[in-house]
Automatic annotation (TrEMBL):
Protein name listed in UniProt: GIY-YIG nuclease family protein
Signal peptide: none
Coiled coil: none
Organism: Mucilaginibacter terrigena
Residue ranges crossing the lipid bilayer per the database entry: none
Superkingdom as given in the UniProt entry: Bacteria
InterPro entries in alphabetical order: GIY-YIG_endonuc, GIY-YIG_endonuc_sf
GIY-YIG domain: residues covered: 1-75
């Protein structure tokens, strides 16, 4: 089982899209002080996630969402899942 997910940082007012096989551990990693985009803030929270059967499917869904390049579309996806 794999996940595609969207995180949000209130301090940066930014979204991050990713995929993983272990969502809890991945979020912990994002919230550590490390090099990379999410390392700039310690307040990332899961706003949306989707379970997919394979790593390839999760990666394809991640790329699809990233291709939107639209904060508004990401917000609509999050809102539609509630």
């Amino acid at each position: 089982m794999f996940f595609t997910y969207i995180l949000y940082s209130m301090s940066l007012d930014k979204y991050y899209v990713g995929s993983t096989s272990n969502l809890d551990e991945r979020v912990k990693k994002h919230n550590t002080n490390h090099k990379g985009f999410t390392g700039r803030a310690p307040d990332w929270v899961i706003k949306w996630s989707e379970t997919l059967p394979t790593k390839e499917d999760a990666g394809m869904r991640e790329r699809q969402i990233k291709s939107w390049k639209s904060k508004k579309m990401i917000q609509q996806l999050i809102a539609s899942s509630k």
